[in-house]
Amino acid sequence: MAMILDLSDEEARALLNVLIDTIEAARYPMSPRIRLLREIIAKFGGMGPVPPRPRAEAPSPCTAASTANAGGARSSRRPRQGRRTR
After folding, report:
1. Quick one: CA torsion of 36, 37, 38, 43, rounded to 10 degrees?
2. For the whole model, what pTM was predicted?
3. Where on the phi/psi map is residue 82: left (φ > 0), alpha (ψ -120 to 50), or beta?
4. Would the CA dihedral through 65, 67, 72, 73 be positive or negative?
5. Are 32 and 38 in contact, with CB atoms under 8 Å apart?
6. DSSP per residue, the chain
């Protein structure tokens, strides 16, 4: 059963962006679900490429923790003492 969607260019681009974001965030990029989404994007061929959006990279947890403690604030966590002997 074929379905025809009457979308404006803006709506179609918004849909493409949601599909692309979902594919890029997928934990398993070769899953059947993501393959289906890629096939759907291929059907938008007449739209042309979607302009890439700039993405801010999140700092790694190590970088964020060292930046947070850079101001001299003490961590509430005690340092590890190593293995205890019995």
Report:
1. 90
2. 0.52
3. left
4. negative
5. no
6. --------HHHHHHHHHHHHHHHHT-SSTTSHHHHHHHHHHHTTGGG-PPPPPP-PPPPPHHHHHHHHGGGSPPPSSPPP--PPP-
Query: What are the Cα distances from residue 29, in Å, to 2, 23, 26, 49?
Result: 26, 7, 6, 20
Print pLDDT tens along the chain (86 aa).
Answer: 788 889 999 999 999 999 999 999 999 999 999 999 999 999 887 665 555 556 566 665 665 555 555 555 555 666 666 666 66
Q: How far is CA 5 from the centre of its chain?
A: 27
Q: CB–CB of 28/34 below 8 Å?
A: yes
Give the C-alpha separation, 35 to 13, whole Å. 19
